[in-house]
Amino acid sequence: MNDSNNRDNLLRQIRDEVVALSESPLYSYRTENKYFPVIGEGSHQAKIMFIGEAPGRNEAKTGRTFCGSAGKILDTLLGEVGLKREEVYVTNIVKDRPQNNRDPLPEEIKIYGPFLERQIAIIQPQVIATLGRYSIVYIMEKLGLADKLKPISELHGQEFVAETEYGKVYIVPLYHPAAAIYNQGLIETLKQDFKILEKFK
């Protein structure tokens, strides 16, 4: 089996496990609303992986990542640096929608986090771009950069280096595109911050 098939199979296995994750505190909310878990999508050979926090309503209704207004902003930002959505991989820490789009709870992050870690190990991105404060805290703590943690207002657009089992990875903290829906001024900040990704294409 070649590497591409192997990655596809391993990621499919994660999807099947999340679909059946009845011990998740969000499982009954998902099934009652006929929502889908949102596993992630994009290239399984992606150099750049984007990690958000949790799916919203549009995502849970379709099972697709970043397909609402935040997704349109993400697509625009990718286009600004010459990237297409299908060239990168986009996922969240939490794979099911929290009620009323509330922030994910610690126990939800704890149950879904290991799936994200497996996705990272399978795809082996050169760059992990975190979208929002929950993903930056999770990733920096997991990858031994907890001592570098500061508010996202201070970290955004910077570049950090971490060592993983598959080698070096660059961590780039970014504001969540959804924040730009409510604060138009953040669009220009995000455009500037995304420029750091051009060299990794």
Beta-strand portion reads: 5-15%
CATH superfamily: Uracil-DNA glycosylase-like domain
Biggest sheet character: 6 strands, mixed
- Characterize the overall form: globular
The radius of gyration over CA amounts to 16 Å
Which blocks of ≥5 consecutive residues have pLDDT under 50?
none
What is the structural class? alpha/beta
| Helix fraction bin | 40-55%
Indicate how many domains the architecture comprises: 1
CATH top level label: Alpha Beta
The total count of helices amounts to 9
Describe how the helices and strands are arranged.
Elements: H1 3-19, H2 27-32, E1 41-42, E2 48-52, H3 57-62, H4 69-80, E3 89-92, H5 106-123, E4 127-131, H6 133-142, H7 152-155, E5 160-164, E6 167-174, H8 179-182, H9 185-194
Helix pairs in contact: 1-5, 4-9
What is the structure about, briefly put?
With about 200 residues, the chain is α/β, with parallel strands linked by helices. The chain has nine helices and six strands; from the N terminus they run ααββααβαβααββαα.
